[in-house]
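Ticket #4471: structure export looks truncated?
Reporter: QA, pipeline team
Priority: medium

Steps to reproduce: submit the single chain below to the structure queue and open the exported record.
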Amino acid sequence: MLNQVSVLIVEDGSFIALDLAVAVKEARGNVIGPAGSVREALMLIEQHLVQAAILDVNLSDRDVTPVAELLIEGGVPVIFYPGLALPTELRKRYPSACVCKKPTPLVQLLNKLVASMPNKEETVLALGAVDLPAVRS
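Actual output as written to the record:
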């Protein structure tokens, strides 16, 4: 369970964004977003305390690099959730970044997110018991 952790969802595919939001809510997390563009994501970061993030890579206005840099440099756990590979610059800058390519099962994605959190002892890893929707391609 996410134990009320606020998770920013940055995804421009409406069905995938909805599936991610439902999965986070069912895992007892608080959803911020979803944002479909870098501009929207940066606005949400200014307005909310973001404790974790799931980031698509290619958004409607550009790639997610500015959002990723801001979050990672601020110590926020990030899971990249691209349809293809991580852009070369992001891969070079953050070689140990967690990447789950679509269509990674949502339970697996959320377990990796929880595992990346600094206070994961407070966040139960029993996500397998949560009935999560399958991601649509």
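Status: closed, not a bug. The export was complete when the record was re-opened. Leaving a note from the reviewer for reference: Helices lie at 14-26, 38-47, 65-73, 88-93, 106-115.
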